[in-house]
Amino acid sequence: MTSERRLALWVVVILGGGLLIYLLRNALFPFVAGMVVGYLLDPLADRLEARKCPRGLAAALIVGAFLAVLIIVILVLAPVLSAQIADLIGRLPDYLERIRDFAKPLIAQLRASLTEAQLIQLQEITRNSTGEMVKWAGTVLKGMVGGGAALLNVLSLAVIMPVVAFYLLRDWDRIIAHLDGLLPRGSADTIREQMREIDERLSGFLRGQSLVCLILGTMYAVGLTVVGLDFGLLVGMGAGVISFIPYFGTAVGLVVGLGLALAQFSDWLPIALVAGVFAIGQVVEGYVLTPKLVGERIGLHPVWVLFALLAGGTLFGFTGILLAVPAAAVIGVVVRFVIERYRNSPMYRSSGTATADGGTDQGDKP
């Protein structure tokens, strides 16, 4: 098979796989979640197996412990978070009224500095933007709760995810050996080398970033609660969870936290303390957590990760968000490999174009 045909075959396989994922995106979520959990916990299974624990028993113990911890966390936090959410919904009109009163002087100053035409244009932009946001939020809520889909998704996640994680942990070595046996013999060493690099970068990012999110969520929740912010636990944990998207968690938490602080406090000191909690968290993340837990060797730029998460979520929903970082890691390694091959090729190293007499045309010389 020629290189062109091999390339065409790989393009067809990738496009076909992407189309299949898109068509089955709603059904794939619990399976992908189980694969992610199994992949993250595989090193622990390897350690237990190295200590003479049967692989099947190790997988069962790990998945059981993971589910136990998850259930305990849910049982402890769910009542508190649900109470805070209900309280926030009840207080929201009052908070909006306070924010409106706070913003009145700023709005009056803005009106004084704009012409009538500019004010009309600003009002129109605000009205259209608000309408689009409400429409988007309604679509999201409808997709989450419409037709009992949310309950079905939760049940499928609770039942299917542990089963997939268990079997993946138990059979991981056999799956890898089987896939290795399918590699073309002439390119097997090169493919293995690239897959090892993908595994190193992907595992480093996923495990490290998960710890970063957990630590940031705890820091934000404790800090905001100590400051006295209403719903500090809810805001802090939410900001920590979405910190998986670089800079997004801190930005959203800061905006929401400051909004609640402006509505709750009349003094500037607690408002400044709320901003300080997120500023300290960002400094700790940038200079301590990320360098220590994630490191620079993963080769996944925050902008690239952000784009991958947004693109994956737009195309495939929650399934796309779970697949975004693995896909970004694979694409990054493949692109670096292609660039390296190109730089070592005659096409890159050639200093000029061939001439009719067999020499090279070096271009005009001074």
Task: Give a written overview of the molecule.
This protein is mainly α. The protein folds into 2 domains: 25-182, no CATH class; 188-345. It has helices at residues 3-23, 25-50, 55-113, 116-145, 149-181, 188-227, 232-241, 248-264, 268-294, 302-343, 346-349; strands at 353-354, 360-361. The longest helix has 59 residues, at 55-113. Residues 143-148 and 354-366 have low confidence and may be disordered.
List the helices and strands and how they pair.
Elements: H1 3-23, H2 25-50, H3 55-113, H4 116-145, H5 149-181, H6 188-227, H7 232-241, H8 248-264, H9 268-294, H10 302-343, H11 346-349, E1 353-354, E2 360-361
Antiparallel strand pairs: 1-2
